[in-house]
Amino acid sequence: MSSGAHDVSLGGAPLAYPSPRTVLELLKPITWFAPMWAFGCGVISAGRPLTPHLPAIAAGVLLAGPLVCGTSQAVNDWFDRAVDAVNEPDRPIPSGRMPGAWGFYLAIGWSALSLAVAALLGRWVFGAAIVGLILAWAYSAPPVRLKRNGWWSNAAVGLCYEGLPWFTGAALLGGAAPGGRLLAIAALYSVGAHGIMTLNDFKSIEGDRAMGLASLPVQLGVAGAGRVACAVMALAQCAVMALLLTWGFTLAAGAIGLLLVVQLGLMVRLLASPRARAPWYNATGTTLYVWGMLICAFALRAAAGAG
User: How far is C-alpha 92 from the geometric centre of its chain's CA atoms?
Assistant: First the structure.
């Protein structure tokens, strides 16, 4: 038995269970940042006072990150345990530190807990949580298993990481479905996140190919997938700038334009060696991408306050 699991007795029969540290590793806290950031952008863009809603906002951050996103990580690792045995054998399930079917049990339990918290935050938040959880299971679980095709899988993840949390934050403070402007911006940043997800697929090409998963690097090759990822990220931001200019948000559009210019320079270096430099780009170019989201959120907030 590895050090991450313990033996206890239940009715005289031995029972192995994972340590809290292993459970936390399965839920991958590093992945929570993106949906929590997008949720925060939604909260800001709603244009409502924040202080009276701080407890609800805190619950929403918990929902977006540790709960719904954590659920998606548990579901993915359970149904990807054979792929991870090839790509990343040190992960909790293939390494044996998450014994038996505990990965599946945690995925079920975290789904239920997510729905319970979402139900306390209103019908729009609850509805968004249902959609997010459906996509989380559809992404990994058969028979749907969206991740068998990189076009569909990256679209689902982009929506769950950016659009749905943005919608949730705005709906939480507004008490209703967000307006067209917020939905358009959230949708475009979801589209751009498709490219970010493609970069994340570079690390698992061998395992994906061996298991018949047609990620974009498998379908298009490393160079082709890199070009598609960059084009998607850049075009989505160009569309965001066009909308902002149409709405009269000139300063915000200009700021995002400057961020994009820097990203384009970073993309040139990325494309010289996409697989090796994908983690570097995620730490640089993707950071600039999400700062653009925050700029949009404050522009929409200012407009709501002015109105």
Answer: 20
Evaluate whether 243 touches 198 at the Cβ level (below 8 Å). Answer: no
Residue 18 belongs to what H/E stretch? strand 13-18
Find, among 196, 269, 152, the residue nearest to 31 by Cα: 196
Instruction: Tell me: pLDDT of 253 over 80.
Output: yes
Q: CB within 8 A of 74, min separation 6: which ones?
A: 26, 27, 103, 106, 107, 110
Are the C-beta atoms of 102 and 51 separated by less than 8 Å?
no
Mean pLDDT score of the chain: 92
Please tell me whether the peptide bond between 143 and the residue prior to it is cis, using omega within 30 degrees of 0.
yes
Reading the block at residue 194, the tokens are: 């498709």
Is the per-residue pLDDT at 36 higher than 80?
yes
Strands 5-10, 13-18: pairing kind: antiparallel
Backbone angles phi and psi of 16, in degrees to 5: -95, 140
Long-range contacts of 300-307 (CB under 8 A, 24+ apart): 300/44, 300/45, 300/47, 300/181, 300/182, 300/185, 301/44, 301/45, 301/46, 301/47, 303/47, 303/181, 303/247, 303/249, 304/45, 304/46, 304/47, 304/48, 305/47, 307/47
